[in-house]
Request: fold
Amino acid sequence: MELLGLYHYWVFAILLMIGFYAVIAKRNLVKKLIGLSLFQAAVFLLYITMGKVDGGTAPIFSGDGATVFSNPLPQVLILTAIVVGISTTALGLGIVVRIKEEYGSIEEHEIQETDKR
Amino acid sequence: MIVIFGLFLLTLLVITAIAIVRTNNLFVAVMLMGIASLLIAANFFLLDAADVALTEAAVGAGISTVLFLSALALTSERERAKSSNRLLSFTVVAAAALIIIYATFDKPRFGDPEAPVQTHVAPWYLEKTPEYIDIPNVVTAVLGSFRGYDTLGEVFVVFTAGIGVLFLLGGGVAAGSLPQEKINEGLRHHLIPRVVGRVLIPFILLFGLYVQFHGEYGPGGGFQAGAIIAASVILFALLEGEKRALSVVPERALLGLIACGPLLYGGVGLAGIVLGGNFLDYSVLSSDPVKGQQLGILLIEAGVGLSVTGVLLAIFHAFAARGR
Amino acid sequence: MTALIDTLSWVLLTLGGLSVLIGGIGALRMPDLYTRMHAASVTDSMGAILVLVGIMLQAGWSLATIKLIAILLFLLLTSPTSSYALASAALLAGTRPYAEAQQDEEETT
Reply:
C-alpha cells in the first residue's frame, strides 16, 4: 500500500526529469517549450497528489452529507498555475515565431551561427 | 481499487512523455501533448480535483494544442538537429531523478489525513466556507473570496500575456503571404465539418455559459468557461475562415474583452473600498454579508471569464493572421 | 431486478472494453492511414456506445443519465466528422492508399 502511494511521487520525479531533459538537451526551440510544458504538468501532479485524503471526495458540499473532503488549497493554487502556464507558453510561442522570421531557423545552433556573423 | 486505475494512467503518461521527447516530428509531439494533458486530467479527477481536471482538459488539451499548431504552421514542423551534449544531460537528469526519488521516501503516506498539509489551514477553510460564503464549491470560494487577491494577480498575468503576444505578432502581415483567394477556396473541402460545426457551436457556447455560472455549485468557473467559449469561436474561425471570424467577433471587441476583464475585477475591489470595507472585501456589496460575498464572486468570475476569452482569442487571431 | 441491471451493465462494459482493444490492435496492425482510421473508428462508435450505455445502466434514472446521453450524442456527432476531416486532409496532402501504393511499386519494378 505504501508502494502504491510512492508510485505517484516517482512518476512525478520521472516526468519532471523528462521535461527538463527536453529543455536542456534538445536544440529546437518549440521542443524546449514542449519540455517546459511537461515540467509544469509534473509539478501540478505533485501538488494535487499531496492534497488527496483517504476516503475523501472533491471539496464540494453536495447534499449527501459527505464529511471527508480532499484538501482544496492545492487545487486553488494549481488552477491558477495552469492558466499562468498557458499564458507563458503562448508568449514563448510568439517569441519563437518572431525568431523564425528574423533568423530563418528555430534550431539553437543555427541561430547562434547567424548571430556570430 | 481505483488507485490501481490511477497507476495505469500514470504509466501511460510516462510512456507518452518519453515518446514526446524522442520524436522528431513536432506535429506528432504536439498531438501527444494533447493525449498527455487528457491523461493528466483523468488522473486529477481520480485524485478528487474536479475543478483542476476540467481546467487541464479545457486549457491543456484544447487551447494549448491549437496554439502550438498555429505556431508550427508559421515555423517548421520537423526538428532537424540531434540533441547536444546527450551524455552529460542524461547523467544530470538521471542523477536529479534519483535524488528526488530518494527524497520521496520521507513524504507522508499518500492520502494520510494527519499529514501536515491536511491539518494546517485546510480544515479552517472547509469549516468557515458555509458560514461566511455559503456556496457548495469550496475551491471557488477560496479562489474568489478568501484568496481573491492572488486571482486578481493571475488575471493580470493573463492580460500581460495577451498584450505581449499582440505586441510581438499583432503588427500586421509578414512578407510572403498567401493571396486571399487561395485561403477561401480551401474551405470548399470542409463541407461536412462546416455543417456539423454550425450545429455544434451554439451548444458549445451554451455549455461555456453553463460552466461560467455554475462555478459556485460544481466544478467550473471563469477560467474553464473562458477556455470553452474561446474554443467555440476558434472552431468557427477554423471552419469558416479567418475573415468571417473577424467579422463576427471583431478585433475591437476582443480588445474590449481583454481590457474589461481586469477592469471589472479591479472595479469590484475598488467598490469594496468605496462602500466602506477593504479592497476586494465583498461583504459590503450588499446588505447581507453572505449575499454580498456571493455577488462579489459572481462578478469577479465574470471578469475572469471575459479576460480569458478575450486573451485566448486575441492570441489565436495574432497567430492565424500572421503570414496571411 | 437490480441484479439483472448490474449483470447487463457489466456485460456491456466488458464488450465496450473489448471493442476499444480491438480498435487499438487494428490501429497498430493495419498497413496504412485509411485502414487504420477505419479500425480506430470501432473505438469511437461501438466502444463509446457500449461503455456509455453500461454506465447509464449503473446510474439509473437521474440527472447523470441525461448528461451521459448528451455526451453520447456529442461523441456520435463529432468523431465521424473528425475522422472525415483527417482523411480529407491526408488525401489533400497526398497520402496514397495502400493498394494504390502497392500498384505503383509493381509498375516501377
